[in-house]
Amino acid sequence: MKPPRPNRLRDTWAGTTRPDRVGERLRVAGWVHRRRDHGGLIFIDLRDRTGLLQLVFRPEEAPEAHAAAEALRPEHVISAGGELVRRAEGTINPNLPTGEVELNVAAVEQLADAETPPFAVDDDAAVDEVLRLRYRYLDLRREHMREAFELRHRVVQAIHRQLDERGFLELETPMLTRSTPEGARDFLVPSRMQPGDWYALPQSPQLFKQLFMIAGFERYYQVVRCFRDEDLRADRQPEFTQLDMELSFVDEEDVIELCDELLRELLAAGGVELELPLDRITYDEAMLRYGTDRPDRRPGMEIADLGAAFASSEFRVFAGALGGGGVVRGFRVPAGTGELPRRRLDELTEQARGLGAKGLVWAVVEEDGGWRSPVAKFLSEDEMSAAARALEAGPGDTLLIVADAAPVAARVLGELRLAVAPPPIGHDLLWVVDFPMFEWNDDERRWDALHHPFTAPVAPGVGLDTTAADLDSDPGAWRSRAYDVVMDGLEIGGGSIRINRPEVQRKVFDALGLPAEEAEARFGFLLDALRYGAPPHGGIAFGLDRLCALLAGRDSIREVIAFPKTASGADPLTGAPAPVDARQLRELGVRAAGGAPATPSP
Ligand code: ASP
Q1: Distance between CA 558 and CA 556 in Å, rounded?
Q2: DSSP, residue by residue, 423-439
Q3: Is the CB of 241 under 6 A from ligand 1?
Q4: Mean pLDDT for the chain overall
Q5: 260 φ, ψ (degrees, to nearest 5)
Q6: Which end of the chain offers a freer environment for a tag, N or C, measured as fewer CB atoms within 10 Å?
Q7: Closest among 242, 245, 249, 240 to 261, alpha carbons compared
Q8: Which residue's alpha carbon is at the smallest distance from atom 1 of ligand 1?
């Protein structure tokens, strides 16, 4: 960081002062971080963006400055000048980068007063989050917040550098647009000039980036805000930032390899070293071994299929599941992973039921290979030893087993595995590939795209060049050319090779049950564009907030978003969302629905 341009307020960054400048006269400016009155001497830690510097006010040397310092309080804004001196032996602070020096203040100017902040800025003590958001500008003054945003800045800078080097163009796409189907509800904006019509805020720039490829731009990226009107459970935000990318004339391999390298650079910006290539596993394998398409492999404890071990079991629960087309699967909690006393096993059984399983079978493997388990008496020795072999289990290990429909077993075991896992160490990144194209929506009795409807499908037995004619088969058997990248059990990026032929796109809309007229009305512009020579193309989007939160070691994306919203979508700082007056609504041709009247105009 270059020094600031010297002016009447400062000539030096406080946090950058080092012993090499001892003897110089300096001026620094910032906030009073802490003030200590040592009966006579007054010490102030001055804080600017670069860190802290200790100021010393000596009554004999600078009586005026000392008198002024008596009135200073935390968060007052000051400018102070004086000579940089070496701290006396024994008063050096090894925890502070500026801990060997201090500024002997000759003159100080108070630039702004500050009320007593509602929480201390000088420590990272837990503060109620709504209060933090209400006074976000104070919250952001805290060191760990500044660090998170510096890290976010470094990640974004690395994105721009890396992608520029690789020939990507940074291009912008509209915020006022039409709905893009990423599977969430749209935020809508009424049109004043066309009363009754609405814009949607983009859920992603998906269709525009495809149009950039059709336009021949070849490589596009954008660090872009996206909007999804979802319930904010699971650490979501209504507006969030993606690193969005698209490339032409590529297959999966090209995108994945590029992203591997990019991720290595981005993680390096966050101090995390990544070994390439990242592992890849298929969706089916992820569901089997981890019970989720967002596996976290750090805890180990892989799920295994126990169908063969219990194939001829007479135990009603296992026989019933296997006979009914279901599965028996389980995993092993190694001895020493942490106690699983009976009470905990009962809780896990409750949790399994809550997740939709009929029950949970637990067993502790004994020295002689027998099982201590409520169901042991129903199982033969052979069954128990075959199951233990499949789970690579030995004495002292606890086995957790679910017999149910495959998706239920996957979901339940996937969750239980994480529930019993010890706190993970380090990071785990991998690709999940070879997804099904659709998933069945039982409530609506139709197929939904697992990724989105512009993802290229692969018909059974056909391969990458699936044509419309290949897609007369059962949509439930189609695979897609989608890929996700997962970090620590969270999806941090997802994308696909896209459809570049209008007739294939229409087949996918058909399979989704989208009537031709509706497809035309909503996506006619894309279908048109696909008729004018669309190159094979594909891309990906990364959740930048999530990536930065993981790198910063924060458990919520709100910690790396400057002005986030609460779980109810509110911003305690500005008071948004807020009522508008009736005149504004009239201009927009919008009437408030019953229950939430617009505020009358003054
Ligand atoms: N548009 C997709 C999303 O927002 C990402 C992609 O397919 O590139 O999830």
Answers
A1: 5
A2: PP-S--EEEEE--BSEE
A3: no
A4: 95
A5: -55, -50
A6: C
A7: 245
A8: 206
Q: Provide Rg for the chain, Cα atoms.
A: 30
Distance CA 36, CA 415 (A): 51
Supply the residue whose CA is at minimum distance from atom 6 of ligand 1: 495
Pairing state between β 169-170 and 219-227 = parallel
State if residue 491 touches ligand 1 by the CB under 6 angstroms criterion. no
User: First and final CA of the chain: distance in angstroms?
Assistant: 51
Strand locations in 161-259 (E): 169-170, 188-190, 198-200, 219-227, 239-248
**pLDDT tens for each residue of 557-578:** 999 999 999 988 999 999 999 9
Omega cis (within 30) before 277: yes
Please give the Cα distance from 171 to 220 (Å, whole number): 7
Tokens 């502790």 identify what position?
364
As a whole-number percent, the residues of the chain with pLDDT over 90 amount to 91
The residue whose C-alpha atom lies closest to atom 8 belonging to ligand 1 is 540
Give the distance, in angstroms, between the CA of residue 344 and the centroid of all CA atoms in the same chain: 30
- State the binding site: 182, 228-230, 237, 451, 491, 498, 543-546
In this prediction, what percent of the chain has a pLDDT beyond 70? 98
* 287 vs 137: CA distance, rounded Å: 43
Alpha helices in 378-515 (DSSP H): 381-390, 406-420, 502-511
Dist. CA 269–CA 544, nearest whole Å:
13
CA distance 6 to 246: 45
Higher pLDDT, 284 or 339: 284
Report H helices in 423-581.
Answer: 502-511, 516-530, 544-551
The answer to whether 161 and 140 are in contact (CB under 8 A) is no
Residue 270 CB less than 6 A away from ligand 1:
no
DSSP assignment letter at 559: G
Whether the model clears a pTM of 0.90, i.e. scores above it, the answer is: yes
The SS3 call for residue 448 is strand
pLDDT at 181: 77
Up-side HSE of residue 373: CA atoms within 13 Å toward CB? Answer: 23
For a mutational test of ligand 1's pocket, the pick from 230, 451, 483, i.e. the residue with the most ligand atoms closer than 8 A to its C-beta, is 451
- Provide the edge-to-edge strand list for the sheet that holds 327-333: 304-305, 327-333, 398-404, 361-365, 371-372
Beta strands in 450-574 (DSSP E): 457-458, 479-480, 482-487, 490-497, 537-543
